[in-house]
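Need a sequence for this fold. Nothing fancy.
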């Protein structure tokens, strides 16, 4: 479910970039798409942390760790994120 949300958000932002009034170069578009993918991944990671680390009352359990938080790697030399 999280992965579908992440892909959907990335797709919507890619479509927005295609329809932007200011044309972007290929490199600018690639960097922008990578940035939105990173934002989508961050949102999903935070949602997962909140979902898996909450108790029955919905309160966060800060002491437990989510291993997926390290999913996004550092940007590469052209500014694109690797997932």
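Here you go.
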């Amino acid at each position: 479910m999280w992965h579908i949300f992440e892909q959907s958000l990335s797709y919507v932002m890619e479509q927005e970039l295609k329809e932007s009034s200011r044309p972007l170069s290929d490199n600018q578009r690639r960097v922008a798409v990578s940035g939105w993918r990173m934002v989508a991944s961050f949102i999903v990671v935070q949602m997962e942390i909140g979902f898996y680390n909450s108790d029955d009352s919905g309160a966060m359990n800060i002491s437990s760790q989510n291993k997926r938080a390290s999913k996004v790697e550092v940007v590469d030399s052209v500014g694109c994120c690797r997932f």
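For context: Confidence is low (pLDDT under 50) at residues 64-78.
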